[in-house]
Task: inverse folding
């Protein structure tokens, strides 16, 4: 497999620094789950000159290790999507739209493949919700401005405590809580 020359890639921070004066809006949609452990985030960047770009990045909730994608998959994914949108707009993309962080992560995964074993109670039924699913539920709840406590909503909706959710229940809760049309915006 080829090794990447990291000097051909810029970081998302470098792209943000290059574009900072031109950015009028950054819109990041809530995470969308495709499976129990995999999803994506879509982000749009708009510039003063009227141009805008939308990009996606994916995440996994089952990665092990100490990388940003393993410890903070949602935040890392959002950053990657914004970086890709900036790359589509021409910032730091003379050789590639991929950011240096994305290339480093691809190399890390190539060199040490992630192992994934679905949680199970040993009887073929799904295990408890992962810590990352629970963190994602709290992040969506807090970012979306829902009233009340997440724990109360879980008890009312699923008849159990948040620590007793199964993986499928947690995935369903994530899908339910992330509004399809709600976008979270930050201006610069």
Result:
């Amino acid at each position: 497999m080829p090794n990447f020359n990291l000097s051909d890639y810029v970081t998302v921070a470098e792209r943000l620094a290059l574009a900072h004066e031109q950015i009028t809006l950054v819109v990041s949609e809530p995470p969308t789950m495709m499976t129990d452990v995999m999803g994506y985030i879509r982000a749009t960047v708009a510039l003063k000159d009227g141009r805008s770009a939308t990009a996606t990045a994916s995440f996994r909730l089952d990665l092990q290790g100490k990388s940003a994608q393993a410890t903070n998959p949602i935040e890392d994914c959002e950053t990657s999507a914004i970086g890709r949108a900036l790359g589509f707009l021409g910032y730091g993309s003379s050789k590639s739209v991929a950011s240096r962080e994305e290339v480093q992560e691809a190399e890390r995964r190539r060199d040490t493949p992630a192992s994934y074993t679905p949680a199970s109670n040993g009887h073929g039924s799904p295990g408890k919700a992962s810590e990352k699913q629970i963190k994602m539920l709290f992040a969506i709840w807090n970012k979306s401005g829902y009233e009340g406590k997440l724990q109360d909503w879980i008890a009312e909706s699923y008849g159990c405590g948040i620590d007793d959710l199964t993986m499928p229940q947690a995935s369903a809760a994530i899908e339910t809580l992330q509004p399809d049309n709600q976008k979270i915006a930050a201006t610069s």
Observations:
- Strands lie at 23-28, 32-33, 38-47, 52-60, 184-186.
